[in-house]
């Protein structure tokens, strides 16, 4: 399992499935990450604009907005210190590598080890 300084890492979880947000927030919060979960794209963008984040874990599509558009909106809102973005893609989607507009990709359902590896890889550059 990947290790890192969790307490200093701010993670935003965005998914339109409330259960996914709850589980990921619980896992990461129990490991000491500062986690904020959202099912609303608008609320997540507003939060990142106001508070910032080190890493954003988001579904590849939430509501009517694609992941690349979500990432672009959050980057625009935090130009001085944009977060890193990890796309959570459904298991059935073809493996295409990193989604456009993202710094990393994990498959849903997400394994904790995989999430920690991506967060530890991305957070030092964005924390």
Automatic annotation (TrEMBL):
Cross-referenced Gene3D superfamilies: 3.40.50.2300
Domain Response regulatory residue range list: 10-123
One Pfam assignment: Response_reg
InterPro entries per UniProt: Bact_response_regulator, CheY-like_superfamily, Sig_transdc_resp-reg_receiver
Protein name, as recorded: Response regulatory domain-containing protein
The organism of origin for this protein: Sandaracinus amylolyticus
GO biological process: phosphorelay signal transduction system
Entry keywords, A to Z: Phosphoprotein
């Amino acid at each position: 399992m990947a290790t890192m300084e969790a307490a200093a890492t701010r993670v935003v979880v965005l998914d339109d499935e409330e259960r996914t947000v709850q589980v990921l927030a619980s896992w990461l919060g129990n490991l000491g990450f500062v986690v904020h979960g959202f099912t609303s794209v608008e609320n997540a963008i507003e939060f990142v604009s106001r508070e910032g984040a080190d890493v954003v874990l988001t579904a590849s599509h939430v509501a009517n907005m694609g992941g690349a558009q979500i990432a672009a909106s959050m980057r625009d809102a935090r130009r001085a210190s944009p977060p890193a973005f990890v796309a959570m893609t459904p298991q059935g989607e073809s493996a295409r590598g990193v989604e456009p507009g993202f710094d990393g990709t994990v498959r849903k359902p997400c394994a904790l080890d995989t999430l920690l590896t991506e967060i530890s890889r991305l957070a030092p550059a964005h924390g």
